[in-house]
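We modelled the chain as a single entity of 220 amino acids. Its sequence is:
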Amino acid sequence: MTAPEGRGIAGLHGGNAADGTFRILHVSTGNVCRSPITERLTRHALTHRLGSARTSGLIVESAGTWGHEGAPMEAHAATVLSDFGADPQGFLGRELLDEHVIRADLVLTATRDHRAQVISMGHSAGLRTFTLKEFTRLVRAIDPATLPDPQAAGGVVERARALVQAAAALRGWLLAPSEDADEVHDPYGAPITYFRSIGDEIHQALDPVVTALTGVPAPA
């Protein structure tokens, strides 16, 4: 589930069906705190539940709207990932580019402002771009029995595509209870205790998403 090295555009918006892949893009501001944590926790959870072989069609990556290109993730962010058993090694920040949005099948942002920035880039991104917490709320309302069987032909990739379509259809019906409910706040410059609280928020938001994607609940 590593992101490709190349920067060339690999198809039309969300156009990965032909090669049997599904690309998840996490977006924050600097791509050194929230989105690296979210990216690496997603990879860790998917591999933990499915094993490496069954995650080969899922590509998880991240970028920042003001991304620190080539920068390592913040040390506290790396510590949070290690706390969860996820791998912080080898990460380099990226600035969000058109091609990242074009290739993504699902864009999950830290805040509503990030979501608006992604959608403003065009590329028909509106129906596949959500804040992380918004997507979690929508996913909780979807009956997993209505999604493709992850063990069937197409596996988790087809299930992931169906999940995004179902979430987009529900968006206007399940509104956030408050303006702050869909936000993951920026811990940049904060002490490790605050980073850990943000890490817990992200982990809790990701759990139902990964369960819905894989059909495999988190271990007790």
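As a brief sanity check on the tokenised model: Residues 1-13 have pLDDT under 50 and may be disordered. Residues 192-214 form the longest helix (23 residues).
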